[in-house]
Amino acid sequence: MDSSISDIIKSTASHAKLFVDESAKVVITDINAEKGEQYAKELGDNALFVKQDVSNEDDWKKVVDTTVDKFGQLDILVNNAGITMAKSLFDFSVNDYEKIFKINQLSVFLGTKYAAAVMKDQKHGSIVNISSLNGLVAGAIGYTDTKFAVRGFTKAAAIELSRYGIRVNSIHPGVISTPMIRQGETADKVEQYAKMIPIQRIAEPEEVSKMVLFVASDDASYSTGSEFVIDGGISAQ
User: Fold this and answer.
1) Which of 91, 185, 107, 106 is nearest to 141 (CA)?
2) Pick from 71, 110, 186, 210: most CB atoms within 10 A?
3) Is residue 6 part of a domain?
4) What are residue 82's phi and psi, to 5 degrees?
Protein backbone atom coordinates (compact mmCIF):
# COMPACT_ATOMS: atom_id res chain seq x y z
CA MET A 1 0.00 0.00 0.00
CA ASP A 2 1.36 3.42 -0.95
CA SER A 3 1.57 6.18 1.61
CA SER A 4 -1.45 8.48 1.41
CA ILE A 5 -1.22 11.57 -0.76
CA SER A 6 -2.82 13.47 2.12
CA ASP A 7 0.25 12.78 4.25
CA ILE A 8 2.54 14.39 1.69
CA ILE A 9 0.22 17.38 1.36
CA LYS A 10 -0.06 17.80 5.14
CA SER A 11 3.70 17.97 5.68
CA THR A 12 4.21 20.22 2.65
CA ALA A 13 1.41 22.48 3.84
CA SER A 14 2.96 22.73 7.29
CA HIS A 15 6.34 23.72 5.86
CA ALA A 16 4.78 26.20 3.44
CA LYS A 17 2.67 27.92 6.09
CA LEU A 18 5.63 28.46 8.40
CA PHE A 19 7.74 29.92 5.59
CA VAL A 20 4.92 32.24 4.51
CA ASP A 21 4.47 33.30 8.14
CA GLU A 22 8.15 34.27 8.06
CA SER A 23 7.47 36.47 5.00
CA ALA A 24 8.90 34.07 2.43
CA LYS A 25 7.42 33.69 -1.03
CA VAL A 26 6.63 30.02 -1.54
CA VAL A 27 5.95 27.74 -4.49
CA ILE A 28 4.10 24.57 -3.51
CA THR A 29 4.05 21.58 -5.85
CA ASP A 30 2.20 18.28 -5.86
CA ILE A 31 0.35 15.97 -8.23
CA ASN A 32 -2.92 16.75 -6.44
CA ALA A 33 -3.80 20.02 -8.12
CA GLU A 34 -7.15 20.54 -6.43
CA LYS A 35 -5.83 20.43 -2.87
CA GLY A 36 -2.59 22.19 -3.77
CA GLU A 37 -4.33 25.13 -5.41
CA GLN A 38 -6.80 25.37 -2.55
CA TYR A 39 -4.04 25.53 0.04
CA ALA A 40 -1.96 28.04 -1.90
CA LYS A 41 -5.03 30.27 -2.11
CA GLU A 42 -5.49 30.02 1.66
CA LEU A 43 -1.87 31.10 2.19
CA GLY A 44 -2.37 34.28 0.16
CA ASP A 45 -0.44 36.23 -2.46
CA ASN A 46 2.96 34.99 -1.28
CA ALA A 47 2.12 31.39 -2.22
CA LEU A 48 1.81 29.82 -5.66
CA PHE A 49 0.85 26.26 -6.58
CA VAL A 50 2.33 24.41 -9.57
CA LYS A 51 1.20 20.89 -10.44
CA GLN A 52 4.23 18.63 -10.60
CA ASP A 53 5.28 15.02 -10.92
CA VAL A 54 8.53 15.16 -8.95
CA SER A 55 9.97 12.24 -10.93
CA ASN A 56 9.57 14.11 -14.22
CA GLU A 57 12.53 16.16 -15.44
CA ASP A 58 10.46 18.52 -17.60
CA ASP A 59 8.21 19.26 -14.62
CA TRP A 60 11.25 20.29 -12.58
CA LYS A 61 12.35 22.66 -15.34
CA LYS A 62 8.84 24.14 -15.37
CA VAL A 63 8.72 24.58 -11.59
CA VAL A 64 12.11 26.29 -11.40
CA ASP A 65 11.37 28.55 -14.38
CA THR A 66 7.95 29.46 -12.96
CA THR A 67 9.47 30.29 -9.58
CA VAL A 68 12.06 32.62 -11.07
CA ASP A 69 9.52 34.23 -13.42
CA LYS A 70 7.08 34.84 -10.56
CA PHE A 71 9.39 35.83 -7.72
CA GLY A 72 12.65 36.79 -9.42
CA GLN A 73 14.93 34.35 -7.63
CA LEU A 74 15.18 30.96 -5.95
CA ASP A 75 16.84 30.90 -2.54
CA ILE A 76 15.57 27.70 -0.91
CA LEU A 77 14.52 24.26 -2.12
CA VAL A 78 12.85 21.74 0.18
CA ASN A 79 12.72 18.26 -1.37
CA ASN A 80 9.81 16.76 0.56
CA ALA A 81 8.17 14.07 -1.61
CA GLY A 82 8.19 10.49 -0.41
CA ILE A 83 6.25 7.22 -0.46
CA THR A 84 6.57 3.78 1.07
CA MET A 85 4.98 0.38 0.48
CA ALA A 86 4.12 -2.23 3.08
CA LYS A 87 5.56 -5.18 1.15
CA SER A 88 8.21 -7.78 1.84
CA LEU A 89 11.28 -8.12 -0.34
CA PHE A 90 9.75 -11.19 -2.00
CA ASP A 91 6.54 -9.36 -2.91
CA PHE A 92 8.22 -6.34 -4.46
CA SER A 93 7.99 -6.05 -8.23
CA VAL A 94 10.48 -4.10 -10.31
CA ASN A 95 7.73 -1.58 -11.03
CA ASP A 96 7.10 -1.14 -7.29
CA TYR A 97 10.78 -0.52 -6.66
CA GLU A 98 11.14 1.88 -9.55
CA LYS A 99 8.15 3.90 -8.33
CA ILE A 100 9.68 4.37 -4.88
CA PHE A 101 13.08 5.16 -6.38
CA LYS A 102 11.67 7.79 -8.72
CA ILE A 103 9.65 9.62 -6.08
CA ASN A 104 12.00 9.30 -3.10
CA GLN A 105 15.41 9.49 -4.75
CA LEU A 106 15.33 10.62 -8.38
CA SER A 107 13.18 13.62 -7.41
CA VAL A 108 15.89 14.83 -5.03
CA PHE A 109 18.54 14.58 -7.73
CA LEU A 110 16.39 16.43 -10.27
CA GLY A 111 15.27 19.13 -7.85
CA THR A 112 18.79 19.77 -6.67
CA LYS A 113 20.19 19.86 -10.21
CA TYR A 114 17.75 22.46 -11.53
CA ALA A 115 17.48 24.58 -8.39
CA ALA A 116 21.26 24.65 -7.97
CA ALA A 117 21.69 25.92 -11.53
CA VAL A 118 19.81 29.08 -10.51
CA MET A 119 21.43 29.30 -7.08
CA LYS A 120 24.88 29.00 -8.66
CA ASP A 121 24.37 32.21 -10.64
CA GLN A 122 23.00 33.91 -7.51
CA LYS A 123 26.04 32.68 -5.55
CA HIS A 124 23.87 31.54 -2.66
CA GLY A 125 21.17 29.03 -1.82
CA SER A 126 19.99 26.42 0.67
CA ILE A 127 18.71 22.97 -0.24
CA VAL A 128 16.97 20.85 2.39
CA ASN A 129 16.38 17.20 1.60
CA ILE A 130 13.79 15.41 3.73
CA SER A 131 15.20 11.95 4.34
CA SER A 132 13.95 9.92 7.31
CA LEU A 133 14.97 8.16 10.47
CA ASN A 134 15.13 5.23 8.03
CA GLY A 135 17.93 7.04 6.26
CA LEU A 136 19.94 6.27 9.41
CA VAL A 137 18.54 2.93 10.61
CA ALA A 138 16.75 0.06 8.89
CA GLY A 139 13.07 0.12 8.04
CA ALA A 140 10.94 -0.98 5.10
CA ILE A 141 12.51 -2.28 1.90
CA GLY A 142 12.51 0.40 -0.80
CA TYR A 143 11.88 3.23 1.64
CA THR A 144 15.04 2.60 3.67
CA ASP A 145 17.16 2.15 0.56
CA THR A 146 16.08 5.41 -1.02
CA LYS A 147 16.22 7.42 2.18
CA PHE A 148 19.81 6.26 2.79
CA ALA A 149 20.53 7.33 -0.79
CA VAL A 150 19.10 10.81 -0.10
CA ARG A 151 21.46 11.08 2.86
CA GLY A 152 24.46 10.13 0.72
CA PHE A 153 23.46 12.35 -2.16
CA THR A 154 23.10 15.27 0.24
CA LYS A 155 26.71 14.91 1.36
CA ALA A 156 28.07 14.60 -2.19
CA ALA A 157 26.05 17.58 -3.39
CA ALA A 158 27.09 19.64 -0.37
CA ILE A 159 30.77 19.20 -1.23
CA GLU A 160 30.32 19.99 -4.92
CA LEU A 161 28.04 22.98 -4.44
CA SER A 162 29.77 24.62 -1.48
CA ARG A 163 32.08 26.57 -3.82
CA TYR A 164 29.00 28.36 -5.16
CA GLY A 165 27.68 29.39 -1.76
CA ILE A 166 25.02 26.66 -1.81
CA ARG A 167 24.37 24.64 1.36
CA VAL A 168 22.79 21.16 1.19
CA ASN A 169 21.55 19.36 4.31
CA SER A 170 19.26 16.47 5.16
CA ILE A 171 16.55 16.18 7.81
CA HIS A 172 15.65 12.84 9.35
CA PRO A 173 12.19 12.76 10.95
CA GLY A 174 10.97 9.87 13.05
CA VAL A 175 7.27 9.10 13.47
CA ILE A 176 5.14 12.09 12.50
CA SER A 177 1.42 12.53 13.11
CA THR A 178 -0.28 12.34 9.71
CA PRO A 179 -3.71 11.12 8.57
CA MET A 180 -2.25 7.81 7.40
CA ILE A 181 -0.95 6.74 10.81
CA ARG A 182 -4.03 7.99 12.66
CA GLN A 183 -6.43 5.60 10.95
CA GLY A 184 -7.84 2.25 12.12
CA GLU A 185 -5.48 -0.39 13.46
CA THR A 186 -2.47 1.72 12.54
CA ALA A 187 -3.47 4.34 15.11
CA ASP A 188 -3.42 1.77 17.92
CA LYS A 189 -0.03 0.44 16.83
CA VAL A 190 1.39 3.95 16.70
CA GLU A 191 0.16 4.72 20.20
CA GLN A 192 1.83 1.60 21.50
CA TYR A 193 5.04 2.43 19.66
CA ALA A 194 5.00 5.98 21.03
CA LYS A 195 5.44 4.56 24.53
CA MET A 196 8.85 3.20 23.49
CA ILE A 197 10.07 6.57 22.20
CA PRO A 198 12.22 8.34 24.81
CA ILE A 199 10.05 11.48 24.57
CA GLN A 200 7.01 9.13 24.67
CA ARG A 201 5.01 10.73 21.87
CA ILE A 202 5.11 11.14 18.13
CA ALA A 203 5.94 14.46 16.50
CA GLU A 204 3.56 16.98 14.98
CA PRO A 205 4.27 18.14 11.40
CA GLU A 206 4.85 21.68 12.69
CA GLU A 207 7.80 20.47 14.76
CA VAL A 208 9.50 19.16 11.63
CA SER A 209 8.66 22.40 9.83
CA LYS A 210 10.50 24.42 12.46
CA MET A 211 13.58 22.27 11.88
CA VAL A 212 13.24 22.77 8.11
CA LEU A 213 12.98 26.54 8.58
CA PHE A 214 16.10 26.63 10.75
CA VAL A 215 18.20 24.49 8.41
CA ALA A 216 17.08 26.48 5.37
CA SER A 217 17.79 29.83 6.99
CA ASP A 218 20.95 31.84 7.51
CA ASP A 219 20.81 30.81 11.16
CA ALA A 220 22.34 27.52 9.95
CA SER A 221 24.87 29.28 7.70
CA TYR A 222 27.83 27.09 8.75
CA SER A 223 26.03 23.78 8.29
CA THR A 224 26.28 21.84 5.05
CA GLY A 225 26.37 18.12 4.31
CA SER A 226 24.88 17.62 7.77
CA GLU A 227 22.14 15.38 9.14
CA PHE A 228 19.51 16.95 11.38
CA VAL A 229 17.62 14.29 13.30
CA ILE A 230 14.16 14.91 14.77
CA ASP A 231 13.04 11.54 16.14
CA GLY A 232 12.28 12.00 19.84
CA GLY A 233 15.46 10.15 20.77
CA ILE A 234 14.75 6.87 18.90
CA SER A 235 18.13 6.72 17.19
CA ALA A 236 19.93 7.48 20.47
CA GLN A 237 18.81 4.21 22.04
Assistant:
1) 91
2) 110
3) no
4) -175, 145
Q: Give the largest Cα separation in the chain, rounded.
A: 50
In this prediction, residues 58-63 reach a mean pLDDT of: 98
Strands 227-230 and 166-173: parallel
Domain count for the chain: 1
- 59 Cβ contact partners less than 8 Å away, ≥ 6 residues apart: 52, 53
d(CA 179, CA 190): 12
The CATH number assigned to the domain holding 118 equals 3.40.50.720
Residues 6+ apart with CB under 8 A from 167: 125, 126, 127, 158, 161, 220, 221, 223, 224
Active site annotation includes 143: yes
2: pLDDT strictly greater than 50: no
Catalytic residue among 143, 164, 193, 222: 143
pLDDT class for 185, splitting at 50, 70, 90? low
Domain containing 114 equals 56-223
Q: What one-character DSSP code corresponds to residue 182?
A: G
DSSP 103: I
